[in-house]
Amino acid sequence: MTEADWADWDQFVRDDPDGSLFHTTAWMESVRVAFGQKPVYLIALRGADVVAGLPLFEIKSLLGGHMLVSVPYAIYGGPLGDDVDALRALQDRAYEHADAVGARTIDLRCARARWTGVPVNERYVTFRRGLPDRPEDCLAALPRKARAAARLACDKHGLCVSFDDGHLRAVWLLYCRSMRRLGSLNYPYGFFRELVHRTPKGHSVSLVSHRGRPVAGLVTFLFNGVAMPYFVGADERFGHMHTSNFVYLTAMERSVAMGCRTFDFGRSRRDNLGACAFKRNQGFKAEALQYQAYTPPGRSAPNLTPTNPRFGLARRIWPALPSTVTRWMGAWLTKHIPG
Hints:
By secondary structure, this protein is an alpha+beta fold. The chain has helices spanning about 5-15, 25-35, 85-100, 140, 145-155, 170-180, 190-200, 245-255, 275-280, 310-315, 325-335, and strands at about 40, 40-45, 50-55, 55-60, 65-70, 105-110, 120, 125-130, 160-165, 205-210, 215-225, 225-235, 260-270, 285-290, 290-295.
């Protein structure tokens, strides 16, 4: 795909039922600029019409070697289109490219499997549900316990929320704090900035405060009527005030006001019991994601998942490091661990 195809590709993504923000050129350019990764987007044409496509990035990782990922730092990705012959042609072309560059794997983050003869990995689940028609109905749509927690956050603890792109830096700092506490790597601030810049009408940035002090923040992306809270952070010292319940409720209300009718809570690992339980308690049901990974003959796929025992010691040490260190190191390391 060349730059001349970008507009047609983005329209194709919007028209495909499995199309997502992660397939768009806004995500492509944000990843390229923030991480320096090389996009290799394959499209199939019949005449002048795009009938199938496969967004790929070449990742040259110090930890995992050479990989092709569709799409890095994303929940969804993989091929789009229903033209069987075109999809097969793209699959063959991707195999050729993997051989040409010596890639160890082609990682497809499919909502549903599209490639034949490639194993499906159901390690992850996603959570989606419909939104009410009016923002003021979002609270009543929550299950009883989640509804009570959100009410306490506002009525008892006095939490308040504001929406403004000017909060982005504060949200990123809260996000880095949460990632450090969990022993996970944070993405660079530049990635946040690029995505907000390239989605002018497709995001909201929310900051929750207690007596003027930021205690939680969230960046929610909006695409084709679907709202996805993607980058979240919180000061754990205020967790007893139900900051998580409040930040997501207010994001739902804002998303309805901006025209969204579906809320996508994003993926969680099946073995991440805490995250899955929280999302279920908000009234969401788990649905398996059908990720696929192709390993060329004679090669072995890298294991860059958080459950890899090789990362166990680092994950235990990470929360004890100063935040100024983890913010910088996390931003650098995520170039080599494509999320």
